[in-house]
Amino acid sequence: MKLTRALVAQTDGSLAQLEPFVVAALIMTTILHAVHSVNRADSNYVLSTIRVLLFGAFMFCNKGRRASLTAVQQGVLNTIPKDVRTALKRLNVSPDIIRYACC
After folding, report:
1. Which DSSP symbol is given to 92?
2. 8 Å CB contact between 9 and 23
3. Of 3, 47, 55, 74, whose CB neighbour count within 10 A is largest?
4. CA gap 78, 80 in Å, rounded
5. What DSSP letter does each residue of 47-76 carry, written as one string?
């Protein structure tokens, strides 16, 4: 598996160019949001948590070699969106969401 695909996905946003584990994270978050009615703020928190966990895994793997991320690792992190709406767009999903006014 080539991690350089993530750098390509950063520029064109093509789903085919994303790493499989990034696609899995996007699918999980969009299912939580669209199917299980998790609100946008909590869905964004899930995406942020995934980014932090991946950052920690990268830093753990780099321990002893370097104290920062490589360009490829940073590129992978940048492919994980910070907002669930971006994840929905990347997956070409437009869920039927009914909004109600709550007073």
Report:
1. T
2. no
3. 47
4. 5
5. HHHHHHHHHHHHHHHHTTT-SS--HHHHHH
Inter-residue contact 62 to 55 (CB < 8 Å): no
pLDDT digits (tens, 9 = 90+) for 52-70: 999 999 999 998 777 889 9
Threshold 0.85, pTM exceeds: no
Nearest to 18 by CA among 5, 27, 30, 29: 5
Decide if 15 contacts 92 (C-beta within 8 A).
yes
Q: Kindly tell me the sign of the dihedral angle through the C-alpha atoms of 23, 80, 50, 83.
A: negative
- Residue labelled with tokens 């492919």: 79
